[in-house]
């Protein structure tokens, strides 16, 4: 009898097949989000975005379908934070994230294994990402968004990465590493500008996103290894 049938789907998704290292690091990442809120308690929505985003990314790393439940909550909260901060590329991308969660739920229910592009196709995909990034930068700058050269990562590169994630291509994590790195710098700049008197959004919201993006970056690096090893197949090994 499988774990899913003996314990139930929800229990299995949440609690089965965890490594000690994974339990420790997800606990640290959640405590980081709470700690940021205690330092700057002006955006509980930002904290909620960070906590549920952390849960979504960790369960996504493990290849579990429940990631899309946590992801939906996180994306709704992050859309509001982006709207407050006038980060329009992020705002548009977050709307797509909200829509993509039920799509991802459906897709992962019909495809148990992760996939990889051939080396030739991978080069074409990454070349297309670079070209799309510069096009996105140009159009975002026309709407006078904050830091369009960073915001294009959120609108363009994130869009492609999310599509690859939904389709379970391992290359999605390589793109997320670039997106997360850019976003850490992006939200640090917004937090510094807030402290300098450019009061768009909230300082707590900016800090929560810095903490979240740092968590996302760490998770993306670790998920690259997990998906390449096949550990994320079959709902993270819970359904075989």
The end-to-end span amounts to 11 Å
Helix content: over 70%
Helices and strands, in N-to-C order? HHHHHHHHHHH
Overall structural class, as computed from helix and strand content, comes to mainly alpha
User: What's the assembly state of these chains?
Assistant: single chain
Which descriptor suits the 3D outline? Answer: globular
Unreliable spans are: none
Give me the count of strands: 0
**SS element count, helices:** 11
- Biggest β-sheet strands, sense, barrel: none
Strand content: under 5%
Average pLDDT level: 83
Rg of Cα set: 18 Å
Fill in the keyword field for this structure.
single chain, 240 residues, mainly alpha, 79% helix
Structure report:
- The protein has 240 residues and is mainly α.
- The protein has 11 helices and no strands.
- α4 (44-61) runs parallel beside α10.
- The longest helix is centred in the C-terminal third of the chain and has 27 residues, at 203-229.
- It is globular.
- The N and C termini lie close together (11 Å).
- The model has no long low-confidence stretch (mean pLDDT 83).
